[in-house]
Structure formats: C-alpha cells, structure tokens
Amino acid sequence: MGKIEWAMWANEQALAAGLIYLTGGIVGVAGQFRDWQFAAFGIAAGVFVCVLEYPRSRRAKGTSVERTGQYCFTMCVNAFGPLTRNYYVRAILHAALSVPGGFMLATLLGCVCLGISSLIYLSAAIHGEHWEPILPKAEPTKHVAPSIKQPPQNPPPRPPAEIRRKRTDDPEAASYANPIPVTDEQ
After folding, report:
1. Is 0.85 topped by the overall pTM?
2. Contact call for residues 54 and 12 (beta carbons, < 8 A)
3. How many CA atoms lie less than 13 Å away from 132 in the CB half-sphere?
4. Transmembrane region positions (predicted)?
5. Which candidate, 46, 52, 92, places its Cα nearest to that of 75?
C-alpha cells in the first residue's frame, strides 16, 4: 500500500471550490443580492484560486498527468517560488479567502469547499509535501554507436560485403550482381 499524496486531493478539491466560489459570486453580483460586495470578492477569489490550482503538481512516484494547457499557468505559479510551492502558505491563503464567502448565501458553498481544501493542504504540508511543477521533458539526444554511422541502404537479405562493394570506375560494373543464380525453371 502506497503513501497517500494529500496534495493531489487538495488540488482537485481547491479547483472545484474555486469554480463554485466563482459561480456563487457571479450569482450574487448578477442578482444584486444584499451585501453583493462579498459576491464581487467571491468572483475575484474564485478566479485567483482557479489560476493557482489549475496546474497539477508532479507526483512523488509514478506518472504525473498534466491538465490540458496547464503550462502557462505552471509558469505563473512557478514564478512566485516558495510562496506558491509551500502547502502551509496555500492552507492559510485558502482559509483566509474562504472567510468573506461565509457572509452571503450565494458564496457559502464555495466558502465551505475552500475551507475543506485548506484542511487537506494543511495535512499535505504536515506530511512534508510541496508543489513541484510538471515541466516538459527535453528530448534525449540519441547517441549513434560508432559502428553504425549510416543505416543500411538496401533492404535485407543483403549480399555479403565482398559482393556489395561498388566499383565507381565502370558504371556497368558498379551495379549489384545477384549472388544467387536465377534460372527459368521452377
């Protein structure tokens, strides 16, 4: 049984929470609810959380599957260095962003979801996890063995090396000779 990677759970939860928070904020502002300023904050916080959480972290073991188009978001998140890589910082940030959402019904669900993701990030930080970017792998350089400088030019079966050598002084003799005699009989 492997170790649980809490950050993977927190990332999925926080991205969903950001989208819910954003949606609740849009509903609150569009409906001109009382204290709609909290909903406007919910829109800004939801967008920020979505940008922060869209890029997945590289897994400790196994394969890391990146989201479609995550590279530009990865560069944005990676630019802030330890501020965005540390899961203690993310746990505190998500907890702080979720507080204003509790003052309005439209953003309450996003607030609760963001609070849960904050707790999962706290668990990830306690277990020693941190965010690592998934960067594109550089193409490995292929080393050509010294014995194989040029691939074979003719398909197999190839005639022995003595017969295969071409003579360039006589164009008629430079063509390959068939080492196997060909007869009309079958």
Report:
1. no
2. no
3. 10
4. 12-30, 36-54, 103-126
5. 52
